[in-house]
Amino acid sequence: MSNSLRLGIAGLGTVGAALVRIVQEKHDMLTARCGQSVVVTCVNARSKSKDRGVDLSNLTWIDDPVELAKSDDIDVYVELMGGDGDPAYSSVKAALENGKHVVTANKALLAKHGVELAEIAEQNGLLLNYEAAVAGGIPIIKVMRESLTANSVTRVFGILNGTCNYILTRMEDDGLSFEECLKDAQDLGFAEADPTFDIEGNDTAHKLSILASLAFGTRIAPDAIYLEGITKITIEDIEAARELGYRIKLLGVATKTPNGVESRVHPAMVPLGSAIAEIGGVTNAVSIEADTVGSLMMSGPGAGGDATASAVAGDICDIAKSKPGHQHGPALGQPAHSLLPHERSQMRAHEGGYFIRLTVQDKPGTMASIATRMAEQGISLESIVQRKHKKSGDEDSHAPIILVTHETTEHAINAALEGVKSDGRLVGHAQMIRIEKLT
Ligand code: HSE
Fold first, then answer.
1. CA of 141 relative to ligand 1 center, distance in Å
2. Cis omega (within 30 of 0) on the bond before 400?
3. Which of 81, 177, 243, 362 is the most exposed place for a label (fewest CB within 10 A)?
4. The overall pTM is greater than 0.90
5. What is the CATH number of domain 5-137+305-338?
6. What tens digit of pLDDT does each residue of 115-134 get?
């Protein structure tokens, strides 16, 4: 290693460009804090000619990310390309196999290959740092990996996707359509290259799979996560939620249960006035419940160039400050080979309250039949309301009905809704949104 810590950066999008600028502009401060100079030496991106607003003139451009990762001119490979396949996977692997520390913001890569990459890093005495992969600028990985070592975590949950939170917030605040809000989020640079990863919940699931592994000492298991995005949430749901004292958030939740780990990503009702309900816009929040510390929550910017680059830069500085043979804590909080298999608790066993919005034929007996179907499954109702009565002009009129249940199981709710459907009074789709119990 030379006197400087030399960075090779693959990917010069919003985050990569912000990182180059921060390392250049804050060079003296970083040198003082890290005990050595941190410099970018080599870069790679899809377009060489694009103006990124940063000076790349003194940097070596290496066309192949794998070659960049192996270059003798770098000490740390910074992977900011994204994607769970190549070149991200092959280049990170090549870096670790060639003695380079790695910093990545790539949650999809870690969700799919994190355990394998952590093992390679450990075998080679290298750091694999990924603070920016979860919740952007919030230093949650460091907290879970280092600060909460003496805790058994029971639940970790949060708002992990800035784009979804931005969309839900703007829909509620400004009465804008889902599409208008998504376009704004894309224009502002929050959204993934393929925004379906944001709005269908995959991005949240990738992040949750990493948090669940750190929380419970289990192997990363993105496929064990129940997944539902925000595309079916309507203004009617948002308004009904508010009238009932709730706000809708896309949550990622991982809970330790007697049946295994229940991991789920879905829109959830959270009480107005609760800390998590107040997290608006692109802001993320992560809440941890653990035996020793109790409950804690961290919030901050979950996306955006500077905020994410802040987390990447912090990871780089940790490498600069580490001494060979020391402070090389395992990437996943414990040696990768010692992670437990991920035992999945099935969603049908989920317990909680439910919000259900139905549009039904407005005929005598409809309300009674719905109440009967709920009672058959042992579901106790907290409220059942028929909202404004809208004549359709046809011989039947339609009525929106909103139910809120006391705590029950997902199995019971599904069975009750099947019963309601089979009674033939339902018009269209039955909207079901889980109510998240907060401590
Ligand atoms: N698209 C992500 C988000 C970026 O909106 O949160 C950070 O992972």
1. 16
2. no
3. 243
4. yes
5. 3.40.50.720
6. 999 999 999 999 999 999 99
